[in-house]
Structures are given as C-alpha cells and as structure tokens.
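Could you join me in thinking about how sequence relates to backbone shape in a protein? We need material for that, and I hope you will provide a protein of your own picking. Label the sequence line and the structure token line clearly, so we can match residues to local backbone shapes. Would you write everything just below, so we can both look at the same thing?
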Amino acid sequence: MTPEPAPSLRQLLAFYLDAGVDCALNDEPMNRLLDEEIVAPARAEVRDAPPRDEARRAPVPPPAPRPGAAPPSPDAAIVSAREAAATAPTLDALRALMEQFEGCALRSTATRLVFADGNPQARLMLVGEAPGRDEDIEGRPFVGRSGKLLDLMLAAIGLDRSKVYIANVIPWRPPGNRTPTPQEIQICLPFIQRQVELVNPDIVMTLGNPATQTLLQTREGIMKSRGRWTDYNTGTRTIRAIATFHPAYLLRSPAYKRMTWMDLRAVAQALDSSADKAAS
C-alpha cells in the first residue's frame, strides 16, 4: 500500500488554524511525545550549562519551585466569585474586581479581560458566550466577523452599539476558542449576573445556546428556546428575556437569519411598547 505523501508546511499551518491553534505559547518548539523526564533535564542542560571547568566541579542544582499559593478548588472559586460580585456597587467596581480575580484559570491564558461594550444605560443588553481571538486582542466583545454581523443585525432594527450593552457569560477567551467547561461557567456566572443587575436593562437578549442555557437556566436547545419570551429575575427586578442564534452560527448557517430577524423584530416591538408606556 502506497503511503500518503507528507503534508506541506502550508497544509500543516492551515490544519492548526482550523483546529484553533492561532498563537505560539513558547519561543522554542517542544516535542511533547518524548518522555518529559528526559526532555526537561536536556533542555535545562543546554539553556543553563555552566563553563566546562565549573561543570566538572559541581552539578547544576535543580530549579527552585515557583512561589505562590495553590489555585483554589472549583467550589471555593465559585463561592469567592459570588462573594466578590455581590460587593460591586458599580460596573467600574465590578470590572476592577474581575481584573484581580484569580479563581478562574482562563484569566492566566487569556490576553486580557473582555468586560463589555456599548452603553451602560441601554434598555437592551446582549449576552454572548465567550470572547474569541479578535475580542481577546482588542478587549471588546464581538469585534470580529461575528461582531460585524451583529452590527448589521442591530442596524436592521434601528440600533447600534451606542444604544445597547454587550457582554459575555465568560469574560476571558478559552484557549483555542474551545468550549468553556461547566466549572468555568459556574465560576464566571456570578459576574455576568451582577453585570445584568447593575445595567438593569428592560430586555436581555441571549445569543446562542451556551449563553441561553447558562443565563436563563434552561436545558432546552436554542431551536426550541429562541424567539420565546421568558422572565429573568435579578433578585430585585424581573426583566424580560429572549434568545436568538449567535452571529457565528449564522455565518455558518445563513438559512437561520430569517428566524433571527423575527426575534429582532420582536425585541424592537417590545422596546417601542415599553417606551410608549413610559411616555403615557
């Protein structure tokens, strides 16, 4: 049987990009298939090798352990997030707390916190799942291809980012855009809940299945939950909530744009209705 030809460098790079590998974590390549016990001493020997005469007199000592406390357990991190979020009196204070929060491992792998974008006094709040590569670079949610489509979606009902508030359930980008783990979601959940409470919008619109199931506490898929009004209770107020498809999903499945347009129209009508009631 004839073996398949080895892939070219361009094909390998394209494969890694499709798999979500879009940045290098080390300056030097590493063969992770080799025994780490063999690789690590060899790497240390090349990098930290002393002069030959010193090497003959004494061996190189092992590296000292890094100082610092062990990361908290997931349960402890969830409790810590709840306590911290509850103490934030303003959005600025909440953002400062999240910048310093060490209970979520995603914070150490992301470039920066992606807190929010738009108008904190907006009547409509949009909530997505997690930042992607472009959002991680710029520090704002929905700035890549999905963000451009979202802008068009808002423009279709006469809105733009100055009239809405946009955030994510997860404020740090998962490595390689992987799906956040249930533990990561539960750790970050108190922050987005407090964010909704502080913004206090008239309507919350969740974008995509993960954000909908997490924030609206439902197990139904997005096909069943989208387009249906439900109540979101902040503890101090009940807010109308509705779900629709994530813009990234619409880029892959444009046939569902018609359903999304129906959901947007429902939001526009609800905003107009509440404005009329407030004026009367």
About this structure: The CA atoms of residues 91 and 198 lie 7 Å apart. The first strand starts at residue 117 and ends at 118.
